[in-house]
Amino acid sequence: MLRSFLLFLAKADWARNIITHFPPARLAARRFVAGETVEEAIEAIRRLNAKGMTASLDHLGENVSATTDADRTTETYLGLIERVVATPDLAPTTISVKLTALGLDISEAVCLANMQRILERAQEHNIEVTIDMESSDYTERTLRIYRALHGEQGFKNVGTVIQSYLRRSEADMTELAKLGARIRLCKGAYKEPPTVAFQDKRDVDNNFAILTKIFLRPEAVEAGAYLEIATHDDAVIDAAIYHARKNGLSPDQFEFQMLHGVRTQLQERLVANGYRVRIYVPYGSQWYPYFMRRLAERPANLWFFVSNFFRR
Ligand SMILES: Cc1cc2nc3c(=O)[nH]c(=O)nc-3n(C[C@H](O)[C@H](O)[C@H](O)COP(=O)(O)OP(=O)(O)OC[C@H]3O[C@@H](n4cnc5c(N)ncnc54)[C@H](O)[C@@H]3O)c2cc1C
């Protein structure tokens, strides 16, 4: 109930207006968001690098409806790539993008053209780009654009995300493993109906294990498939490590990914145990929907936020 309500608020403009104007909300969001400027994000990445972790940098923003806004987001990402290149002390940093911020609501053609520009610039500098996965309204279009970029246009620096709560994901992962895709596997953060998504946590977790096994096989790895296990769930992580070991994979043949500000001790423990850990580092002024999804994932975050709110 609470999760559904918070995810409903994440899309409501009136709630955005109220919440973003309260300083305590900004303060609470800082746990999950590196800051509003790229400099703050670069500093956050340096701190992670010092702890043996890499980062994926995300400029916050979603759902634009004007071509000029999609162009502006594209230019921001081109500038971001240049900024990363101009900071050679950073460990290899990847970029994460949302297709709705690049014009997916306008047309697939506009969005594809913007992604091509970003991938070309990133490719010049050996930077990898991951297309985030948004709500199920966009899944088919996102995968179509991914296939066009990775398959038809031959960009090897592009990856995308699959969500274990979606019923369709087993078929998608089977196909993507054959394509030698780089896939970030997560549980999924949006409100979805039972017709398209498992509603019970046990089913979502079981499916995560099934999807993990599809990629953590020697045949898939030989085909070029690379799995990024994006979760903070101990049981899911332990199961992935078990399957990787059982199949003779070494810790450099997959990686774990977590969100900035979430389970930092677990992040450090995995590094200490010799695993690759990459942290998703979002920054920018459009932090509201991202922050609300983080609250929805864990009600305890909400109480932390509310107590700060009333303390002021
Ligand atoms: C790198 C990365 C990229 C992602 N990209 C996408 C994407 O493109 N599309 C998409 O739909 N979703 C994305 N997500 C979000 C994901 O779908 C989940 O909503 C989120 O990771 C929480 O699920 P969990 O796997 O950690 O498991 P859960 O079962 O939700 O949580 C396991 C434990 O982790 C801790 N935890 C989890 N979330 C939080 C939180 N917000 N605050 C504090 N503690 C928490 C708690 O201790 C909890 O018990 C991404 C997640 C990561 C890590």
Give an overview in words.
With 312 residues, this protein is of the alpha/beta class. The protein has two domains: 1-32 and 294-312, no CATH class; 36-286, TIM Barrel. It contains 14 helices and eight strands. An eight-stranded parallel β-barrel has the order 1-2-3-4-5-6-7-8, surrounded by seven helices. Helix 5 links the parallel strand 1 (54-59) and strand 2 (94-97). Helix 6 (108-124) packs across helix 7. The longest helix has 19 residues, at 67-85. It is globular. The relative contact order is 0.16. The model has no long low-confidence stretch (mean pLDDT 94). The structure holds flavin-adenine dinucleotide. Flavin-adenine dinucleotide (FAD) binds at residues 132-133, 161, 163, 184, 186-190, 230-233, 257-259, 262-263, 280, 294, 297-298, 301. Flavin-adenine dinucleotide binds at residues 132-133, 161, 163, 184, 186-190, 230-233, 257-259, 262-263, 280, 294, 297-298, 301.
The radius of gyration over CA amounts to: 19 Å
> Helix coverage percent of residues?
40-55%
Give the rounded overall mean pLDDT: 94
Q: CATH fold name of the largest domain, please?
A: TIM Barrel
Assembly context of the chains: single chain
Which class of secondary structure composition applies to the elements?
Answer: alpha/beta
Order of adjacent strands in the largest pleated sheet: 1-2-3-4-5-6-7-8
What small-molecule ligands were found? flavin-adenine dinucleotide
Distance between the termini: 28 Å
Overall geometric form: globular
CATH architecture tag of the largest domain: Alpha-Beta Barrel
- The low-confidence runs, each spanning 5 or more residues with pLDDT under 50, are none
Domains, number: 2
Q: Give the amount of beta strand, in percent.
A: 5-15%
What's the CATH C level of the largest domain? Alpha Beta
Helix-strand sequence? HHHHEHEHEHEHEHHEHEHEHH
What is the total tally of β strands? 8
**Count of DSSP H/I helices:** 14
Describe the biggest sheet? 8 strands, parallel, barrel
